[in-house]
TrEMBL record:
Keywords: Acetylation, Endoplasmic reticulum, Membrane, Mitochondrion, Mitochondrion outer membrane, Transferase, Transmembrane, Transmembrane helix. This is Microsomal glutathione S-transferase 1. InterPro entries: MAPEG-like_dom_sf (IPR023352), Membr-assoc_MAPEG (IPR001129), MGST1-like (IPR040162). Its main location: endoplasmic reticulum.
Length: 157
């Protein structure tokens, strides 16, 4: 089994690359959230202790705790990634370990997640986001199906 988790296994290499790219994308969202808070003078903070004056927010105001659209958009994007990428990270690893199938579902999931990020970030219509998400989630469910198929076949042996 350990031979599956090597750079000799192209499915593992695709998985490792995709998880790394998606993790970097999630870090980008976190830093973009910070960017919007700092450049707005502290708007969009969430914690009461953030109202203590400091270098990033020398003159805090109680209104800084109110939702600030640019930071809220980033937080929604991060929430979406947490809801979708974490299960993909887990199922993707199982997919590699049980040799459920080829690389293309892993690559397709990642490509459509990156496209979804672009669609969400640029404020496209809901229908556009929903269409891209549907493709992404369909690929994920296909991976789940392949994993279950392998596991149930092994269990039946």
């Amino acid at each position: 089994m350990s031979s599956l988790l090597t750079t000799e296994n192209p499915v593992f290499v695709s998985y490792a690359l995709c998880v790394t790219v998606l993790s970097i994308k999630m870090s980008f969202i976190a830093w973009n959230t910070v960017y919007h808070m700092v450049n707005s003078g502290g708007k969009g903070i969430r914690n009461p202790e953030d109202l203590i004056a400091g270098p990033c927010n020398p003159e805090p105001h109680p209104d800084d705790l109110k939702p600030y659209p640019p930071t809220e958009r980033q937080r929604r994007m991060m929430g979406h990634d947490l809801e979708n990428n974490v299960p993909f990270f887990a199922v993707g690893l199982i997919y590699v370990l049980v040799q459920a199938g080829p690389e293309w579902p892993i690559q397709s999931y990642t490509a459509t997640k990156l496209f979804h990020h672009l669609v969400y970030w640029t404020g496209q219509r809901h229908e556009m986001r929903a269409t891209v998400w549907t493709v992404t989630n369909s690929v994920f469910l296909y991976m789940c199906y392949l994993v279950l198929k392998v596991l149930l076949e092994k269990r039946g042996e």
